[in-house]
């Protein structure tokens, strides 16, 4: 038994480290007691500046490593290659690079261009310095209090009024608040690493959503950076411009402004490239200047006296109720200073698009997550307090401006805030500081997001941007690319226009962030347990809804473009990105809905009109059964498809083999691009394993209803008369290892037949595929597919196994249904569908064709119809066996040579021929012949002859042979019109039943023992009378009928829909001329003989082997090389056939005689009706 241990601090620390790596690191155990090896995603060289370290990490050989050293694996490929790293080499490299051992190990495991998603770089494992104040509150506050406050608040207030501005401000902050709640929920649900909003979304929703929204967030931050650069230039020109500035120094004009913006942009870029130390110092200076400028606004409103400056359109009244009342209500105009909608008037939505960028900097704290000491605590606290503070500042500024500045100045002067200030230079410095800070933050944030996306290896085109410097991990290439992109955006030269783009991209990011938490909560993920208490699923749903609604209301066309670009990026990443080990919210949501609707998909409530084939393919070897696997994938028609495989052996010994086999079959699914599940089980033999698969496969209403098996290859390979061309070369598919199906002995025939019996006993439909190795799949040869190809259906009705006189049509309809479904699938849709039936006599052709044509039209089956006649000389085997007009071919003669029935027929025919020859010579007639002839010619009742007076006796094994006979019949033949004096059936319950049977056999000159049949029929009659009134249950699965009637719409409807009152529908009475063998105990086939003529046979009188041989030739002659596959009925084995190898082998030989030598055949045996004509 296991022992319990007490854990110390080191054990808990190791557990936490392991849990942090679990989402992105695969642990493998080498040997029995070996420690887990950490797999990471870096098998390439390290970044610039660490080439020596990269050489050490990749060049460490076996001599330097130990069995417990970490190994490097490429997670994005199937064939992982491990590279052991020596601890001594790691320590030496760490000392040379000036890094501690922990940081050195991180650089080895996570550094370089191909870092696996979610891995912390070396700098992140170092000392994290920032807390809530300096890491979250200050960046968010400074990012929110941007250029919009100084250059566009006057424009917003002049258009919307104080009440309108406050309403838009509350709406903007409501969106921010709902998004922040979702941000807090994600950040308190686990360890947050570098990457900001991209990291949060990608690790919550998966790589597709994360990558697409991350790129949209990158573009939004780049737009915001360009907007702040333009704001910086506008403020600078307002002070130093030759025309507008108080100090005329800088020339003005479009291209001069563009030049100034470019200089400012590249200065910010150089600051970012010089490292975090310079960036931190610049940030502190800008924060101080920004704080002073904000404080000067309320102080100026108190200290500055009312004044006017008409030259600069400045009118200042100080605190005034009149001014407040004038600025209270909205008044939208066109052509105001700073407007971008001229000559159209401004609207609520256009003003909202200008205001919202002033509140969209709430994700700045999340962008600093990689530098925070405790991101899970700092991000919620710092962001919430920053929202409260900035909202208070904005409300204060709106009230001060609405109470002191008339509306005319708000319309004409966008820089009114600095013009009415007591210290204009402080306001201008604040404007420049806010613009510079936002530009610096924007460039660095964009570069970090692009670096994170590149290191996650989502798009191969972005891999160069995964670079980072050796010491500070500054993304040099990403910074330069961001600056170049912002340089292009500056060409727009409109703050309002760029603000609209910032609004769209930011709202899209906010909406998806809220949707991520909503999906996690709605999916019921057990691991989603945020410690933030004020979030719930309703706030997440509201945040998602209002964000997307605000997008559409602000600018529907731009919103649609942003959503379309996001969808394009989503699809692109889904196609080219390798699988990631982060987890995907789609799996969680899919699991939730699948479980929910599987419970609703009750198999007891299914209806036949919604039936579809749900296939369990019992596969043995993927290479030999490749055609069958692909064929079943087409046949499933969007339904369930399971590849089942049985490993034979001891459970514990086969466990390693089970894992390898399961992975190999999954690889087959990926390589073949089929939509299938894989189920591999361990059992003592194949029958037990197949039984377990049938019983346990699927859930609820998603359970297999068709069990498909390939015919045993050992029997299928027996040469038969070739009638089809050799198969074409199969399309090259990568060969799979033997792990999918290790080499094993061929399956025993009794086991194989036992699987068939078990499937039928469990009320599953059964399909056996014969000769599929010779099939040419439609997609494998385009030239071959240009020729006319066919799917041939040969429906043959199965007789009812119960005592009911009404035959079953289950197999008949399933053959039609499966053929129709196959012809609708993509790879088989160019094939033509043909239905082939046959009759025995020419006078039945027209009526049979009309009946079947009506049936196909009512069932909406787009197929051509062929009706064949057996007795017109087109089927040589029929002429030889039934009519005796020609000799049998050598193969059929070998098959029937040992058949007692055929020997008896041959003896009777030779005796008849001798009698005919003797009759042509005049001689005295024997007394007993005269008596027999007079008896046959008289119209009275025949006398019972002496059973021992004939020279030929019928042995007991002959009768037993017919007793267990599985008989095959015509497809919808109409019963022949027999004369009144012919015996069409045997009524054992009538008084003269036994005499009629004896007289009929006596007329065939057969010496027989009437006790063999009569006693058995008496016992059956007595048993039937005893069980009268009880449900008749038969152990047989049904046999192929010896005579059928055409399936009518009424039959299909009545079979599919039982009476509404729940009572059993009355079974229509059959014609006396139509007989179906419904009992296990069957009478011998009765050969009819007209009076004075030789005994004759019909197809329905033949035993199963003779019928199989005739049908085999009929199918081979009429389904030639142009036929890709044949679907027909499968004669089911009688219960107990699998008890002996001899009977099982005999049954399989009979199937080979029925299906062999022709095109690929799928034999089907159904147990339920699968088609209906009702709506």
TrEMBL record:
Low complexity compositional bias, start-end: 46-59, 1034-1043
Molecular-function GO terms, alphabetical: potassium:chloride symporter activity
Region (Disordered): 25-98, 720-741, 913-953, 970-992, 1025-1098
Subcellular location: Membrane
Name of protein: Similar to S.cerevisiae protein VHC1 (Vacuolar membrane cation-chloride cotransporter (CCC))
Limits of the SLC12A transporter C-terminal domain: 627-712
Domain spans labelled Amino acid permease/ SLC12A: 135-616
Gene3D superfamilies, alphabetized: Amino acid/polyamine transporter I
Predominant location category: membrane
Signal peptide (residue range): none
Recorded coiled-coil stretches: none
Bias type Acidic residues, positions: 978-992
GO biological process terms on file: cell volume homeostasis; chloride ion homeostasis; potassium ion homeostasis; vacuolar transmembrane transport
Compositional bias ranges of the Polar residues kind: 1044-1056
The keyword Phosphoprotein appears for this protein: no
Entry's transmembrane regions: 136-157, 163-186, 198-220, 255-275, 282-304, 348-366, 387-405, 474-492, 498-520, 532-550, 556-573
Record keywords, A-Z: Membrane, Transmembrane, Transmembrane helix, Transport
Organism field: Malassezia sympodialis (strain ATCC 42132)
One Pfam assignment: AA_permease
Membrane-topology descriptor: Multi-pass membrane protein
GO cellular component annotations of the record: vacuolar membrane
Similarity comment text for this entry: Belongs to the SLC12A transporter family.
